[in-house]
């Protein structure tokens, strides 16, 4: 019965994608015809003006971020004025409605084309049904997410399910990793956190160390880890269903370590453990730090460490970015990700599994958390031309995307600022990031929203083939 239902569902999916491909071709053709019929040869000039306006706007935004004083003010005027000037040009030429209609049709064509090319998502991470834990232990931060712990009555609900709950006292900071270790020593057979991703990572490291399952309760502000696990971020209390009706999966963990072995660093540092070791586990020295989402280096990491960032994020960012982007301040980074090298990027993001690229609606998502590789994104923009090329996405000259099992970040300074799962740190160089496949047992509710399926980059040749070939296959005739 299940096999038959899956077969019918697969046929329906193919039919839907066939019609989406046909809609994309019709809408795209209509978009071009509207321009050609209404504007004739002028349509080429209209498209050129629009593209030039986008490029000028992108370059002006770069100058706003990378310059100060009068140049920044003029760039701001240019960034806001260029799009307005393009619209005025279209209006004066009497073709504004033509451009808007054509743009709407083209947007429909691109959306339908992406839908047509969307294959079923990657194979789901294997999961298994499990018995409820006997002694779950949960740590909850009442300040996370603007007070979600209290608003959703997470403490009372968790205790009603038999969990031991420790509520952190904001006035008296506690070592959450040590709390988790003591709980396991006392017999806890499951650990969980209601808080931000930084706290999640610290306790996840302990869960990995003792090989006990870990529960994510999305009570933080952004909840990126919960998002990529497919949890309900709107209702953190739904995560507690993992305690009574749960399944278990294994996901990867990222590790970061920096400096020479034996370098004690300061309280905010991540010391080195030497070589990353093999797949058997983290170094016994215990000097690595776990990250569940990502570690960032460069401009963003430096900005968030500024004393004024928490009080006025926008002003602090605008004050610091010009010198950081032009390499007048801050360390100059070099990155090695297996065979890929990046020299002098302004920003680097190393993630526990790669983030989606080429899908604007899916930016920030990771399709899998068990691929066994780190994702690496490096941004290097030295001038306005490269800034404009960023409009091309992954094909832009300023963006480098790669995957690797280990990434090494070096610099011309003894230490570099880093943001590890949102926590500001200072790390001695060289910094090594590695991934541990299947390191963490995660307990999830059996019923959960899941991760939205991504869509591939648009390829018109494949869209045309999809519209024709799938149709023939659906009619029972094999495509050539």
**What structural class should be given to the helix and strand makeup?**
alpha+beta
Strand proportion: 15-25%
Provide a count of the helices: 13
The percent range for helix content is 25-40%
Q: Which stretches of 5+ consecutive residues score pLDDT under 50?
A: 1-12, 261-269, 271-286, 470-480
Reading the helices and strands in chain order gives HHHHEEHHEHEHEHEEEHHEEEEHEEEEEH
- Give the averaged pLDDT, no decimals: 82
Q: Termini separation (Å)?
A: 32 Å
Largest pleated sheet: 11 strands, mixed
- Total strand count, please? 17
Q: What is the gyration radius calculated from CA atoms?
A: 26 Å
Shape: globular
Task: Give a brief rundown of this model.
Helix 1 (2-39) crosses helix 13 and helix 7 (176-185) packs parallel to helix 8 (197-210).
Using brief descriptors, characterize the structure shown.
single chain; alpha+beta; 11-stranded mixed beta sheet; 13 helices; 39% helix; disordered N terminus; disordered C terminus
Provide structural commentary.
By secondary structure, the protein is an alpha+beta fold. It contains 13 helices and 17 strands. Strands 1, 2, 3, 4, 5, 6, 7, 9, 10, 14 and 17 form an eleven-stranded mixed sheet that branches. A six-stranded antiparallel sheet has the order 13-12-11-8-15-16. It is globular.
């Amino acid at each position: 019965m299940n096999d038959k239902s899956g077969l019918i569902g697969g046929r329906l999916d193919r039919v839907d994608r066939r019609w989406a491909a046909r809609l994309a071709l019709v809408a795209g053709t209509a978009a071009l015809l509207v321009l050609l019929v209404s504007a004739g040869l002028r349509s080429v000039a209209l498209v050129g003006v629009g593209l030039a306006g986008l490029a000028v706007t992108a370059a002006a935004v770069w100058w706003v971020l990378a310059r100060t004083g009068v140049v920044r003010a003029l760039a701001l005027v240019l960034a806001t004025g260029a799009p307005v000037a393009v619209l005025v040009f279209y209006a004066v030429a009497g073709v504004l409605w033509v451009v808007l209609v054509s743009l709407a049709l083209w947007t429909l064509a691109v959306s339908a084309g992406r839908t047509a090319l969307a294959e079923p998502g990657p194979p789901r991470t294997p999961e298994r049904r499990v018995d409820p834990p006997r002694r779950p232990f949960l740590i909850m931060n009442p300040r996370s997410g603007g007070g979600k712990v209290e608003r959703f009555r997470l403490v009372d609900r968790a205790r009603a399910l038999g969990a031991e709950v420790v509520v952190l006292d904001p006035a008296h900071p506690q070592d959450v990793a040590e709390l988790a270790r003591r709980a396991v020593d006392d017999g806890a057979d499951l650990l969980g956190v209601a808080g931000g991703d930084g706290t999640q990572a610290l306790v996840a490291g302990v869960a990995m160390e003792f090989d006990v399952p870990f529960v994510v309760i999305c009570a933080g502000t952004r909840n990126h880890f919960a998002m990529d696990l497919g949890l309900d971020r709107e209702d953190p209390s739904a995560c507690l269903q993992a305690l009574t009706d749960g399944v278990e999966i294994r996901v990867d963990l990222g590790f970061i370590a920096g400096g020479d072995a034996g370098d004690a660093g300061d309280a905010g540092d991540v010391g080195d453990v030497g070589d990353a070791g093999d797949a058997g586990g983290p170094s016994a020295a215990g000097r690595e730090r776990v990250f569940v989402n990502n570690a960032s280096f460069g401009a963003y990491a430096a900005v968030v460490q500024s004393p004024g960032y928490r009080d006025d994020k926008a002003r602090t960012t605008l004050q610091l970015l010009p010198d950081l982007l032009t390499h007048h301040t801050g360390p100059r980074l070099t990155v090695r990700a297996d065979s890929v090298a990046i020299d002098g990027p302004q920003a680097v993001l190393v993630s526990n599994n790669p983030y989606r690229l080429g899908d604007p609606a899916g930016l920030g998502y990771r399709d899998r958390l068990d691929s066994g590789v780190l994702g690496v994104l490096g941004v290097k923009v030295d001038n306005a031309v490269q800034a404009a090329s960023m409009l091309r996405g992954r094909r832009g000259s300023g963006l480098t995307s790669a995957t690797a099992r280990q990434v090494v970040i070096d610099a011309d300074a003894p230490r570099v600022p880093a943001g590890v799962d949102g926590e500001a740190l200072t790390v001695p160089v060289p910094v090594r990031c590695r991934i541990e496949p299947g390191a963490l047992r995660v307990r999830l509710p059996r019923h959960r929203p899941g991760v939205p399926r991504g869509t591939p980059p648009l390829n018109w040749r494949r869209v045309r083939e999809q519209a024709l070939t799938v149709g023939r296959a659906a009619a029972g005739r094999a495509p050539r």
